[in-house]
Design a protein that fits this description.
about 140 residues, mainly beta, SH3 type barrels, 2 domains, six-stranded antiparallel sheet, five-stranded antiparallel sheet, about 0% helix, elongated
């Protein structure tokens, strides 16, 4: 895995309106509990409700920052037919034979970021994280 972080999950805490690095995920009867390090109180805390869990893709953007589900990526895609600008959010897609991480724009278009089966990333799609869907949703309408 590239990047300085090794956290496989992060979470959006709805009440606090912040993203935190998740230390542990526990599956309980009917719900999940996460443990995260609170940078404000400098201690580990548990949360059972009011969060959205986001998984790391295992890939990094062009600046070496790890890409998580929900990140908004902006960049240029280069194909044999030419190049074009894109901006979209990272999401897990598992329909039919298309299984993996994708960058999806606000029009519903998508670009493959990482195939689940082959565990490869496509070199023709590069970009950088410019925000996330929780704090910067307006960036998707660029």
């Amino acid at each position: 895995m590239t990047g300085k972080d090794r956290f496989m999950f992060r979470a959006w805490l709805e009440n606090e309106k912040q993203i935190v690095k998740v230390i542990a995920v526990k599956i309980l009867a009917g719900h999940m509990r996460i443990t995260y390090f609170n940078t404000k109180s400098k201690q580990c805390e548990d949360c059972e409700y009011g969060f959205e869990l986001m998984q790391c893709t295992g890939l990094a953007d062009k600046n070496g920052k790890l890409v998580y589900e929900g990140d908004i990526i902006k960049g240029t895609a280069v194909f044999s037919e030419g190049a074009f600008e894109y901006c979209g959010s990272v999401t897990w897609y598992s329909e039919s034979h298309l299984i993996g991480w994708y960058i999806v724009d606000y029009d519903g278009g998508g670009w493959e970021l990482k195939q689940a089966q082959a565990k490869i990333s496509l070199d023709n799609i590069t970009g950088e994280i410019v925000g996330n869907i929780y704090e910067n949703r307006e960036l998707l309408k660029i």
